[in-house]
Amino acid sequence: MSQTKNQNQALNKWFNRLAATILVGTILNQSTTTIAQAEARKTVQITNQASYTYTTNLPQGKQTFQSTTNQISVTPIPLVDPFGQILGCNGEPLPDYTGFSVGLYEANPNDITGTELGKLVSMTPTEIPNILGNNILGGRKPNSQNINPFSLSNEDRGLYNFLLDPNQGQTDVGKTYILVINPPTNSIYQQRRIKIKILESTGQVNNNIIRYSATALDGQPLSLSGDTTIEDGVVFVPNAETVGLDLFALQFTALMCQPHQIEIVKTGDRVVAQPGDVVIYRLSLKSKGDANLKNLVVTDNLPLGFQFVENSVRGELKGQAVTVSAENNGKTVIFRTDTPIPPEGVLNIAYAAQLTPDSLRGSGQNSAIVQGRRADNNFKVKDGPATHQLKIEPGIISDCGTLIGRVFIDKNFDGEQQNGEPGIPNAVIFMEDGNRIITDPNGLFSVANVLPGNHTGVLDLSSVPGYTLASNRYFSERNSPSRLVRLEPGGLARMNFAVTPTSQEQNNEIKQVQ
Predict the structure, then answer these.
(1) Interatomic CA distance for residues 212 and 200, integer angstroms
(2) CB of 334 within 8 A of CB of 326?
(3) For position 317, what pLDDT does the model report?
(4) Pairing state of beta strands 272-273 and 391-392?
(5) Alpha-carbon distance 250 to 309, whole Å?
(6) CA dihedral of 356, 358, 364, 369, whole degrees rounded to 10
(7) pLDDT by residue (tens digit) across 67-82?
(8) From the CB of residue 160, how many other CB atoms can be counted at a distance below 10 Å?
(9) Lowest-confidence pick of 30-39, 148-157, 215-224, 233-242
(10) In principle, which of 230, 286, 410, 512 could form an S-S bond with 498, CB 3.0–4.6 Å?
(11) What's the pLDDT band for 213 if we cut at 50, 70, 90?
(12) What is the dihedral of CA 141, 142, 143, 148, to 10 degrees?
């Protein structure tokens, strides 16, 4: 018993310090069909068998053992592989991919627009490629383990891929995903979201082709052609296994394809002006990208009462005069120039506008937008609107009007004052802004310098004791203590109030007059 125990202990020690092990692996049969991207997604039959030998050093002496393993046959589950690369604005790899990640999400089923994120797509796990250096048993590089989200690396130059599993319905027609490119924290890049929809799928054994559409949800280009969408809103990828979707990282600030590759600033030579004054405006166009900007067009919308001064346009870039054309159609002025703006360059455009009396009725605010294209890849750039607020003072011109009216005794109840219908003195009318107006001895009142627009006056009946409103036989809306009038600029508006005595004796006198 003791001897057997000692032998077992020695055997255990031997397994812990194996003297020599020789593994001989032989691939007996391997049939593969590969595609450039998919790395063998068709039928793959692998048969593997290994023989081995080892020597023991036990107390009873050395012993040699050898044997052959059972055969292993493997038929991998085919996975469809949409892949791509994060590139710069000119199609070149980014200088540094540290901190970048790419994730694939389900589209939110509760969002009818199909643009909101749902849950992360559950990927079928794969293994790192085997020791023989092929990817048949493992995943597809660079995402060998099919991790979601996947972190990009400089070694792979921004390449990414995910394997969709047809057995989980991930390639069904109509399936919608949102691919999210996340930049590192405090990066100069912004997040991108690409909507991917399966259009056609034959994701089965021996036939793993899918077709899908890709649409940029941020409106920025997906390809070097500069188009965000192709064929009614999609970028058409005919074969996901052989055609990659190249995505472009966009930046917040300088370099690459930042959203604001051009900046427009509008200023004026004054903040207060009067009708008749001439205001000089300046438009500053700054290139904030890494390429020249061409085909620049600035659209400037002038406020009411502003007139563009012909032949007043001047252009300047780096201290040199440049040619800028102007097209004036009344309210809008369009500036064009063939001079490109280099990176970090500033093109200044100056012009004059004169204020007319109508400017008093306008807002005094004008705005401008700029559009152009990158010279290297013809991508569109734009910015704006840039606004400038000018305070308008009337000067010697005023658009204020005057309100007049009368409180009188209406003997014939027609709402109009005739001979023999005297005014009521000291009657009080309240305006909508709280002003209190008192009639003169003849029942008249007036208010000067009233801004144009709608105005309301209300008769205070307590200020005319012994009288009440006179009913109007012709206009029912005048049977009210309030009046609404419309005052035009520089105009005159009237509001009259008809009253009648409340005592029977006074009413009899009125009837006798009639």
Answers:
(1) 7
(2) yes
(3) 94
(4) parallel
(5) 40
(6) -80
(7) 676 665 545 444 554 4
(8) 27
(9) 30-39
(10) 410
(11) confident
(12) -150
| Amino acid (one-letter) located at 221 | P
Q: Would you say 348 and 286 are in contact if contact means Cβ atoms under 8 Å apart?
A: no
Q: What angle do CA 58, 23, 60 make, to 5 degrees?
A: 10
- Distance between CA atoms of residues 345 and 325, nearest Å: 20
- SS3 (DSSP) at 296: strand
Q: How far is CA 310 from the centre of its chain?
A: 37
DSSP per-residue letters across 2-63? HHHHHHHHHHHHHHHT-S-EEEEEEEEEEE----TTTSS-S--EEEEEEEEEEEEEETTEEE
* Cis upstream peptide for 385 (omega within 30°): yes
Distance CA 276, CA 393 (A): 11
Q: Which residue has the tokens 């005595």?
A: 501
Q: Which residue has the higher pLDDT, 429 or 134?
A: 429
CA 118, CA 14: separation in Å to the nearest integer?
A: 55
Q: What's the mean pLDDT in 327-347?
A: 92
| pLDDT greater at residue 352 or residue 80 | 352
Which of 56-60, 224-228, 253-257, 426-430 is predicted least confidently?
253-257
3-state secondary structure 31-48: ECCCCCCCCCCCCCEEEE
On the question of pLDDT at 405 being above 90, the answer is yes
The conformation of residue 311, written as its DSSP 8-state character, comes to T
